[in-house]
Design goal:
Number of strands: 0
Distance between the termini: 18 Å
Order of helices and strands: HHHHHHH
Protein name: 50S ribosomal protein L27
Mean pLDDT: 89
Low-confidence stretches: none
Keywords: Membrane, Transmembrane, Transmembrane helix
Helix content: over 70%
Organism: Olleya aquimaris
Shape: elongated
Oligomer: single chain
Radius of gyration: 17 Å
Strand content: under 5%
Length: 144
């Protein structure tokens, strides 16, 4: 089960990264170009929200299914940079990124004008994208 969830988590991450990049650049472009907010923008930000939440749930299942804590104590994990990144830093950063996506999506729905809607999405999704790019385990991810 662990290997299946890990594979699903790894491959779903491509979809999540793609969606965050597309939604972010769409909002940035439309904000800078002063374009109107459309139903397509709403669907794009909503789909990004959905795939990121699904990915978070898969990651939580993976975290609890892992055997990190049976092999090492938390003190030992914190002393090992790779383990600390996998067990603490990556999950925490990704939770914050998903929270930023959620906040941005929720706040943009309350705005009344196109420029404010797009600017809100652009800000929160850009911050989430930066966090995701910073904590993707690139060495592991690119070797799949």
């Amino acid at each position: 089960m662990y290997s299946t969830v890990k594979m699903l988590h790894s491959y779903w991450a491509y979809l999540v990264l793609f969606m965050i990049v597309v939604a972010t650049f769409n909002a940035l472009y439309k904000t800078i170009a002063k374009k109107e907010y459309e139903a397509r923008d709403f669907r794009l930000s909503l789909f990004t929200l959905i795939v990121s939440h699904i990915h978070l749930l898969i990651g939580i299942v993976l975290w609890f299914a892992s055997d990190y804590f049976s092999e090492m104590s938390m003190g030992e994990i914190m002393k090992n940079a790779t383990m600390r990144s996998n067990v603490v830093e990556h999950p925490l950063t990704m939770i914050i990124a998903v929270a930023l996506i959620t906040i941005g999506y929720s706040k943009h729905k309350k705005k009344l004008t196109s420029d404010k809607k797009l600017k809100t999405i652009a800000i929160f999704y850009t911050l989430a994208l930066i966090l995701v790019l910073a904590k993707i385990p690139w060495k592991t991810w690119l070797n799949l």
